[in-house]
């Protein structure tokens, strides 16, 4: 019998139309530095949200809080209507099984060959045998535009963009329910960037997954996002449709999306 | 005036609190790691890799250390014992000091330099490049995956290494005894084994297992808690080697005291 509180929550969530991910009043400080200062975020099930914001504005920290890698100081995070911060460790691990994450720097295991990196989660969950893992890895690598032979290399032998694509393959190989992409297309050439964007859209549409992506690339944001949110000084300052980026009618967002130096956002340049 | 008086007190207080915090953190870390050894899944592949790294690749370093120690020991005890016409006891002195004391301690210090540093550097790099976080998101407990197999491997590998070191050390002593000091080979070996007791060997192997645990624990703990890029990893590596070396020497006294009291 698997009557976990998460599943009860799921039923309740579907009944009430609660968002898949709901973040309220998230605060986190590192020492004296208040990085998150009350982040509120809602992502509907099956939707793709892009998060924008200046460098160091706390985008990665927000995502790490949601997946439980960083403990926030205050606030609540609900997934399927269940507060993950108050979950038992076991429930939280079960929740983690359904979540995928692409780290900003790839974070590939350099002691393992690429194929083992890609199938790591499937192997860890015993969903696949080691014999079949190579074939499965080749299949997922093909989706991110890499040849099957790449599977036998070690991550250190790959270019930066290839590492990113392997990391992406690893994040989606286990077909997670919720996926986080931290700058999926940074460091890729424009064509490969578009291919990866297509792949992300595909994941969301085909698997019915819910995605949160961080990106600095506006074209990419419009391609992959249903909604967009802008974070500034530790708060969400704007949320709206991703298509409106560039002409959103919000001075901050427009300055950011169009890359203008003049505007309400003053970049702090230290000498 | 008060400030001058209170300042050293505050410093001592802070240092004590810091030491307690570190000790507590290491103890909790060790407990958690050990608890993973008795709960599946088990990572045999990783255990085996760590075991080979410790037992096989440390063999040359440990062997050389042991042989030279045995040789020096034979020479030095000859110098001393000849003054009392007690040369015949040299073989027993060499074997007992090696098996009870020098074998485990010197082998562990060498392994601390090799393995403690490599554990700290590898796990520290994984920490600062988010690989440990990535493990968590890939349904794998990093303590179980990274720490537990290494601890077990070190606890099993160290006694084996020390056993080899004991044998090679005795051979070093025998070499000097027969070639340089004029002992008859058979007589040297006979007096080596005549006075050797099981407890001598056993206490040395227990020490080795404890030191192995300490080396792996400090290596993994320092790596696991490293922060701040390459510099942080460098610091973790240094701390791992220094901390495990000091702990080995301190625990050596404690263990000797325990065996002595029996
Ligand atoms: N582990 C940590 N310890 C201390 N400070 C941290 C830590 N992680 C993040 N920070 C700080 O939090 C702030 C936000 O970091 P974060 O990584 O979320 O930025 P970001 O929005 O993802 O930026 P970028 O677009 O450059 O990736 C930074 O100023 C950083 O210095
Ligand atoms: Mg970031």
UniProtKB/TrEMBL annotation, chain B:
Family listed = Belongs to the MlaE permease family.
Question: Which Gene Ontology terms of cellular component type are present?
Answer: ATP-binding cassette (ABC) transporter complex
Q: For this UniProt entry, which segments traverse the membrane?
A: 54-75, 145-165, 171-189, 201-221, 233-255
Q: What is its main location?
A: membrane
Which domain of life does this protein belong to?
Bacteria
Q: Which residues form a coiled coil?
A: none
Q: In its UniProt entry, what is this protein called? A: ABC transporter permease
Q: Which InterPro entries match?
A: ABC_MlaE_roteobac, Permease_MalE
Keywords carried by this UniProt record: Cell inner membrane, Cell membrane, Membrane, Transmembrane, Transmembrane helix, Transport
Record membrane topology: Multi-pass membrane protein
NCBIfam families associated with the record: MlaE family lipid ABC transporter permease subunit
Q: What is the lineage of its organism?
A: Bacteria, Pseudomonadati, Pseudomonadota, Alphaproteobacteria, Acetobacterales
Question: Which Gene Ontology MF annotations are present?
Answer: phospholipid transporter activity
Described by its record, this protein's role is as follows:
Could be part of an ABC transporter complex.
Where in or outside the cell? Answer: Cell inner membrane; Membrane
Q: Say which species the protein is native to.
A: Siccirubricoccus deserti
């Amino acid at each position: 019998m698997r009557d976990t509180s998460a599943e009860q929550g799921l039923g309740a969530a579907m009944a009430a139309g609660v968002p898949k991910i709901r973040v309220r009043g998230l605060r986190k400080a590192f020492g004296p530095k208040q990085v998150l200062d009350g982040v509120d975020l809602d992502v509907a099930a099956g939707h793709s949200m892009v998060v924008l914001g200046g460098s160091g504005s706390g985008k990665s920290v927000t995502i790490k809080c949601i997946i439980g890698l960083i403990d926030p100081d205050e606030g609540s995070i609900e997934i399927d209507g269940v507060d993950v911060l108050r979950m038992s460790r076991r429930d939280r691990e079960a929740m983690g099984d359904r979540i995928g994450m692409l780290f900003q720097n790839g974070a590939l295991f350099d002691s393992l060959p690429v194929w083992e990196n890609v199938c790591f989660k499937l192997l860890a969950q015993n969903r696949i045998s080691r014999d079949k893992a190579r074939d499965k890895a080749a299949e997922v690598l093909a989706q991110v535009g890499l040849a099957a032979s790449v599977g036998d290399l070690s991550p250190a032998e790959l270019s930066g963009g290839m590492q990113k694509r392997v990391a992406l393959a690893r994040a989606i190989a286990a077909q997670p329910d919720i996926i986080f992409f931290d700058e999926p297309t940074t460091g890729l050439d424009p064509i490969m960037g578009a291919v990866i964007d297509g792949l992300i859209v595909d994941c969301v549409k085909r698997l019915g997954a819910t995605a949160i992506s961080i990106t600095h690339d506006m074209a990419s944001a419009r391609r992959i996002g249903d909604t967009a949110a802008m974070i500034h000084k530790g708060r969400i300052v704007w949320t709206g449709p991703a298509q409106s980026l560039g002409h959103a009618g919000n001075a901050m967002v427009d300055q950011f999306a169009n890359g203008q130096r003049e505007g309400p956002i003053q970049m702090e340049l230290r000498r | 005036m008060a400030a001058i008086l209170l300042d050293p007190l505050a410093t001592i207080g802070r240092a004590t609190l810091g030491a307690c915090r570190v000790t507590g953190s290491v103890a909790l870390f060790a407990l958690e790691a050990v608890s993973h050894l008795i709960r599946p899944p088990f990572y045999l592949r990783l255990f085996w890799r760590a075991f080979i790294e410790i037992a096989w690749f440390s063999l040359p370093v440990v062997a050389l250390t042991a042989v030279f120690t045995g040789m020096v020991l034979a020479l030095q005890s000859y110098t001393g014992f000849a003054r009392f016409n007690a040369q015949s006891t040299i073989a027993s002195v060499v074997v007992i000091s090696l098996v009870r004391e020098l074998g485990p301690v010197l082998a562990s210090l060498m392994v601390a330099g090799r393995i403690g540093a490599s554990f700290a550097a590898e796990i520290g790099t994984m920490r600062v490049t988010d690989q440990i976080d990535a493990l968590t998101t890939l349904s794998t407990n990093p303590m179980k995956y990274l720490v537990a197999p290494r601890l077990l491997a070190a606890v099993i590998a160290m006694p084996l290494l020390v056993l080899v070191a004991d044998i090679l050390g005795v051979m070093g002593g025998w070499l000097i005894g027969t070639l340089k000091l004029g002992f008859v080979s058979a007589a040297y070996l006979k007096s080596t084994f005549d006075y050797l007791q099981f407890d001598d060997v056993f206490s040395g192997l227990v020490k080795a297992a404890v030191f192995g645990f300490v080396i792996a624990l400090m290596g993994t703990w320092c790596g696991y808690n490293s922060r701040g890029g390459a510099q942080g990893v460098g610091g973790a590596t240094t701390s791992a080697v220094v901390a495990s070396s000091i702990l080995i020497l301190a625990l050596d006294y404690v263990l000797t005291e325990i065996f002595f009291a029996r």
